[in-house]
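Table S2 (text version). Query chain:
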Amino acid sequence: MPAVAKKEKKEVFTYEDINNLPEGHYEVIDGRIKNLAPTGFEHGNVELNLGIFLKSKLKDKGYIAVGEVGILIQKDPLRIRAADIVYISKEKAKEKPKGILETTPDLIIEILSPSNTVSEIEEKIEDYFKIEVEKVIIISPEHKKVYIHKKDKNIIESYGFKDNIEFVKGVKGKLEDIIE
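Corresponding structure-token output:
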């Protein structure tokens, strides 16, 4: 019986590989895959309910996607981040995007898991601001806190789940009502 050749795993990915990346939950940092830990039920529930809320408020104004959405940060070396929730206005994207996002989102929301470290979240926020994302919202279900980072601002706004927060201009809500 002939030997079956094993498919070689690529160690370093480049921008030319962007449409042929392997399946899985990971980010690409300097061309190398960084696997992501599975999220828990609470994380998924927050992501789902917040995605539904934003879609109901913004469906005519833009596009919402949830679930480790790949966002191109830089081409060389290849850097792709995975965001929990993204919103892109129709002003930036005339048609619904496909594949890894190369259009800068207006809003990115990250939901913290117990395994996240401060340094990895800070690095993601820095990457998002490198591509000119207007606003990054960090949600901590464990502490019932919301942290809003705005482009070109050195102030982090801090809110509780009972506070009314503005996701994008004209869209406000209390997380305690949105995520049930």
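Notes on Table S2: The longest strand covers residues 62-74. The mean pLDDT is 92.
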